[in-house]
Amino acid sequence: MRIFVQAFMLLGAVIVISTLGAATATAQPTYEEFRHCLDSPTQGNRAAGDGWWSRRSAQEQRYMIELPCEEKYIVAICVFLYDPDLKGCTNKGVARFRADRHCAAQGHEILSAERAACSQEYVANFKPVF
Prior knowledge:
Layout: H1 2-20, H2 29-35, H3 46-54, H4 58-66, H5 72-80, H6 86-105, H7 113-124
């Protein structure tokens, strides 16, 4: 049950980030790269998105830029949750995300013992991205 609550929290944070996300024309090129990964870059408060980005540390910005689009939200979640270990939080989130994709591709049913074992093994052998 706890995993479902965490999943809903992650989804909520992604929605919040998406609404804040559109950039202004004068924003840094790196923010533009991040903005293009959002669901709807033409909607939202452009000034709020630019302001949100400018409040991110260099480390937060770097992590968001270097991850593929489908994983950028993981850094935003770690920021949103005020996790003091941004690197560890991001690596753990990426490992779980990639494990889920890997195990689904292997054909394991969601919430099955096989999927759980596959995910656990994948995460245990995962080489951190940062």
